[in-house]
Amino acid sequence: MATFALVDCNNFYASCERLFQPDLRDRPVVVLSNNDGCVIARSNEAKVLGIPMGAPLFKIRRLIEEHGITVRSSNYALYGDISERVMSVLGSQAPAHEIYSIDECFLDLDRLAVGNLTDWCRELRCRTQQWTGIPVSIGVGPTKTLAKVANRLAKKSTKVRGVLDLTHHPEWIIPALCKTAVGDVWGIGRRWSAMLEERGIHTAHDLASAQDGWVRQRMGIVGLRTVHELRGLVCHGLDDQPAPRLTTCCSRTFGEAIRDKAQVHDAVMSFTERVAEKVRHAGQVAGAVQLFIRTDPFDQNSAQKSVSGSATFQRPTCDTRDISDAVLRIFDRIWRDGYGWRKAGVLLLDLGDPAEVPKSLFDIAEQPDGLMEALDQINARFGRGKARLGLARKGGEWRMRQENLSPSYTTRWGDIPSVKMA
DNA sequence: TCTGGGGTCCTAGGACCC
DNA sequence: TCTGGGGTCCTAGGACCC
Question: Measured at the alpha carbon of residue A205, what is the angle toward residues A167 and A2, in degrees to the nearest 5?
Fold first, then answer.
């Protein structure tokens, strides 16, 4: 039988914020999405105070003031760096691992020859905490979906000390499924959850007991896999060598709605620079580009509009100059006056390996000039956005709000924490 | 006043082909 | 009355994840 573990960092962003500001320990902390829009992470103390996940900041202002909750803007430079540390600890301890998200990692423990797997997991948990300062919970099960179920329960229970191993106690699987709401199952989102509840399927156990044919018809092959996984049948193996990305994107909601074409242009050019940098960093080239802009869907009083356009490159490219030329043409084509634009994004599509691009006669004649490499090196050394192509002006109304940003403790020299000795 | 960003996979339907 | 059958490719949209 297969054995998967899911290691999940507890309240990851909030834990990162605490790492370099220890006085936040045992205190309620929330971390906000980009633009300081809504809550995307909460410390346990904030959860207890009734701050819901995804709550817009303006709806919880009163709670924040009442309880003196600490509020932080997202600091992805910090979280990304801490994540790498956690993952490298996990990778060094397990036979095989798959980084599933910024704060989650699946381990394949099949080939791990230890007497007591639960004890091994407890040790791993202590080691991770000691070496990185980040608390984690570990769930173990015969499939990834069951490891997820175990992980949720491990987090909630005070008895199990952060580790729940369903492979050691197979008789615990059914009670665990009964305790898990169907909407909390990995792979069951809002829509399916509502549909299932309506039909009397309330728990993971109910779902595991549903008829295959019915599931296949209502939820397709994806839903059926989830059901099989709940029954202990492996449908999702460990993917320790993820395929290269097929698309990548840079999009932002603006600080406020913008009607001025020049302002939106600047935002779009900034996103273009950023997204091009991303594909170069991944060592890829893009076959096509897409641009979209849209108004604010939450604004009931203004006209709604969403427009987009795309272009295919003659030769796949990662050069900001090629990409911005294309984006600019699309922008002029799709732009409409008279709307309050609130969000824009640039997507690079059909990403691939440059070595696999067929060479044409003209490519051979045309040598790369090294400008992009130089640009990336300067920015890697002196900070993102330090050297740019002059496609957009600095500043602007579209910049996102980040009113409670913590320092980049681990990725910027100037922000390294200092310790004062008494 | 105020609601994130970045991905994946699957499916249905249309265009087109022989 | 009767109106083929079976492919492929592409795209848009919908579900999900964190």
Answer: 25
Q: What is the pLDDT of residues A36-45, one digit of tens each?
A: 889 999 999 9
Cβ atoms A274, A250 nearer than 8 A: yes
Nucleotide nearest to A221 (CA to C1'): B10
pTM for this model (two decimals): 0.92
Instruction: Quote the DSSP letter at residue A133.
Output: S
Q: Considering only CA atoms, which residue is closest to the C1' of nucleotide C18?
A: A101
**Residue A340 CA distance to nucleotide C2 C1' (Å):** 57
Cβ of A294 near strand B (under 7 Å)? The reply is no
Distance A349 CA to C6 C1' (A): 31
Q: Is there contact between A103 and strand B, defined as CB under 7 Å from any strand atom?
A: no
Is the CB of A65 within 7 Å of strand B?
no
Alpha-carbon distances, residue A7 vs A87, A122, A199 (angstroms)? 10, 11, 33
CA distance A374 to A387: 9
First and final C-alpha spacing in chain A: 56
Q: Which two tokens stand for residue A346?
A: 């640039």
What percent of chain A is predicted at pLDDT more than 90? 72
The CA distance from A251 to A210, in Å, is 40
